[in-house]
Amino acid sequence: MSERLWTDRAPDYPLECDHCRYPIPGDVEEGDDGRYCSVACRDATDDSMLSDPRAYKRFVSSVEPLDSLVPNGIPADSFLLLSGDEGTRRAELGIELVWRALERGEPAVVVSLANPPTATLERFYQNGWNVLPALENDRLRILDCYTHRLDDREAFLEQRNEWTTFVGEAAADAIVEVRDPSDRRELTNSVTGALDDLEMTETGLVTIDSLDELETVFRDRQVYDFVEELRATVCKARFVPVVAAASTADENAPESEYAFDGIVDLRLTDRLATDVRLKQLAVRKLIGAQFLPQWVTYEHEPARGLFAFGPNTDARKVYDLGSGPPQPNQPR
């Protein structure tokens, strides 16, 4: 990632406030131990020193296709929607964003609506990403919004195989069962409670695996209200980004788009060759950040995660298709 962010506006603003770390646009307020942009900053320094905003106000996702489109980082106070149909690796993108945060040494919270928590954890293991240390070190929390729908939870536990039982027992302290996910207040409190437990302010990431599943649990406008509440209490108040996945954004409801700070679209292209469709990713909107207005072709590999095709990549070789079957008007 480039180190040049929005704060790097020299030579127009050569001085930086020693409290808020923003450029000083006018006269300098001199203090005993620094230079300030305002009286408020000068006086506040006596009580505390703010963190450098460059340290937490943007983050690099470390997911190659996404970062290639947002070269200066994603605002950390963003609520992002991953919008794509089945087959676009939407779930893998959400899982990888969590793993990359853990790799950076940051905590993460996963709201698991589409799968039981052990199945959510299995998605990491399928990619060769061992999250057991993060579970033991209290850096990963799973909010279980799934098992409430099981008629016989005890039978479900008894039917698990040896590996699933081991994962469930190892992760027991990191799994928080939400008793009634249809209660918007309880779900919101469960998220903020997990953030408090992990001391997540200006660090970490929250993911919601499926807003589609949430719509089956909530009624009326509650999904929209839930998004707005998390956006205010988590993203804007704590500078902790939230990422949610959904099949598609409802273009017939303008409020669905306005509720999000950023929308990442994932799509399948027309066929490149027989029985092959390419996956592409683009940023539709991202408030507060520059992004490249183009589609990036990508694929997924275990351990590597999502990776972008270079401009000269032969997609047939990526999929080991050779030259493909003879095409019309082409020599055999």
UniProtKB/TrEMBL annotation:
Query: Per the UniProt record, which residue ranges are transmembrane?
Result: none
Q: Specify the KaiC-like domain's residue ranges.
A: 63-291
Q: Cite the entry's keywords alphabetically.
A: ATP-binding, Nucleotide-binding
Q: Which Gene3D superfamilies match?
A: P-loop containing nucleotide triphosphate hydrolases
| Gene Ontology molecular function | ATP binding
Q: Which InterPro entries match?
A: KaiC-like_dom (IPR014774), P-loop_NTPase (IPR027417)
Query: What name is this protein filed under?
Result: Recombinase RecA
Q: Which organism is it from?
A: Natrinema zhouii
